[in-house]
Each structure stands twice: as structure tokens, then as C-alpha cells.
Task: inverse folding
């Protein structure tokens, strides 16, 4: 538990056999449950997870998808399982070792204080970002964040693409999980749903972690994200009209 709140961490993973073990082994002790969702990996990802979930009382649980659905689909599956575990807060931490476990308590704090329903990591305000994050990725991330902020009406949104997040279970139950985008663009679509639900969103600074790996983001992914941002803007405008603004 973290300050009296039960915490579950959802770990989406696809072909992360090299890093999933480290991700699980360094998870803070206050985490009550870890739900790893293997999105149809073709490597030994599931084997690495199963090696850490053999004890009946172990906090690690594996959910295996037989068909690749995308990171959004994996997270939604993890969200559903976490809600069934009756926890208070659900965190998302990727299985690739790029989210520092030392930052987890900072993500939880605004929710525990009652100041936020959803907390998102912000790598761009960390002092090391220029030295750690590749310049091209940083530029694309800032542009997408600017567009997402304006489309959703979320003031001060700095890092829309960061997947290191925490959400109160009460807020999670208010989201239309069946309608959230399943692949690339999931963070942008989710932010639109959160904003339209009137949920309180905060950002906290987290460490940018990179090991020189090549980004999987391709031009077609950027086009998909752009279309989701445009849809968020249209839905927001429609919602404001319906409310008589």
C-alpha cells in the first residue's frame, strides 16, 4: 500500500524479454499487484514473467493476448483486470525499462492528496531531457503535446506522449474503455476522454530514460495520432455546444 491506498501497476509488454525482468524486479515494495499484459510476444517475455509469479502469494500476474492488439489494447486489458482486484489507484509502467520506479511515488501523491484523478509523467520538464532524449523525438513530442493540449483543452499539457501514468480507480470506472483507441495514439485519445469526463489531470516531472534504441514511431503513426487529435477537437467542440457554451 501507498499511504493507505492499494496500488496496482499495469505493465504492457511486447517482445520485452530483455527488460521485463528488470522492470518487475525493481518495482517498489508498496505496489500491491502487478498485471503484466503480454501483447502476443514472439520472444520469451511471458517466460520471464512466469518465473517471477510462481508463488501463490506473489503480486505478479500475467495476462496473455493471443493476437497483437496494440499498446492501448494491452493497457485496457490491464485496466480491467486491475479494477477486478479492487485497488484504489492504477499505474501504467511500460515493460521496456524506460520508466524509473523511483518516480512512482510522485505520480501517486496528487491522487492520494485528492488533488487529481489522473496524473501523467512529464519528461520535458526534467533537466536531463536535452541530454537523454533524441532531438527528433523531443521535437515531435513537443508538437504533438501542443496540438493535443489545444484539442482537448488541457491547460499546460507538456508531454502528451509519456505513458507513465496513474489514475484513481473511481475515475477509471468513468471512462468508456471499449471506445479508447487501441494502438499508436492511445495517450492522445485517452486524454480526450479524460477531459470530456471532467476529470482532474495533473503532470509531474519524471526521468527520461533511453538506451539508444530506435523509435518505433513511423510517419503513418504520426498521421494516426494527428487524426485522433483532430477527432478530440471535434468531440470537444460538440460537447461544448451540447452544454450550451
Result:
Amino acid at each position: 500500500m501507498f499511504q493507505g491506498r492499494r496500488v496496482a501497476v499495469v505493465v504492457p509488454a511486447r517482445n520485452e524479454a530483455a527488460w521485463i525482468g528488470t522492470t518487475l524486479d525493481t518495482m517498489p515494495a508498496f505496489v500491491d499487484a502487478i498485471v503484466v499484459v503480454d501483447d502476443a510476444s514472439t520472444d520469451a517475455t511471458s517466460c520471464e514473467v512466469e518465473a517471477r509469479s510462481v508463488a501463490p502469494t506473489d503480486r505478479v500476474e500475467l495476462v496473455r493476448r493471443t493476437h497483437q492488439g496494440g499498446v492501448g489494447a494491452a493497457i485496457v486489458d490491464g485496466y480491467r483486470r486491475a479494477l477486478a482486484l479492487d485497488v484504489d489507484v492504477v499505474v501504467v509502467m511500460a515493460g521496456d525499462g524506460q520508466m524509473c520506479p523511483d518516480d512512482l511515488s510522485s505520480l501517486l501523491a496528487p491522487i492520494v492528496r485528492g488533488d487529481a484523478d489522473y496524473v501523467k509523467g512529464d519528461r520535458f520538464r526534467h533537466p536531463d531531457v536535452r541530454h537523454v532524449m533524441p532531438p527528433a523525438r523531443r521535437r515531435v513530442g513537443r508538437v504533438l503535446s501542443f496540438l493535443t493540449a489545444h484539442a482537448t483543452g488541457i491547460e499546460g499539457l507538456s508531454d502528451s506522449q509519456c505513458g507513465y501514468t496513474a489514475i484513481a480507480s473511481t475515475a477509471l470506472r468513468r471512462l468508456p474503455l471499449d471506445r479508447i483507441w487501441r494502438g499508436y495514439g492511445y495517450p492522445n485519445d485517452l486524454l480526450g476522454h479524460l477531459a470530456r469526463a471532467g476529470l482532474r489531470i495533473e503532470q509531474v516531472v519524471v526521468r527520461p530514460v533511453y538506451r539508444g534504441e530506435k523509435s518505433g514511431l513511423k510517419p503513418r503513426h504520426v498521421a494516426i495520432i494527428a487524426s485522433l487529435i483532430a477527432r478530440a477537437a471535434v468531440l470537444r467542440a460538440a460537447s461544448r455546444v451540447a452544454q450550451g457554451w
Remarks:
- Residues 7-242 form a domain with the Spore Coat Polysaccharide Biosynthesis Protein SpsA; Chain A fold (CATH 3.90.550.10).
- The longest strand covers residues 7-13.
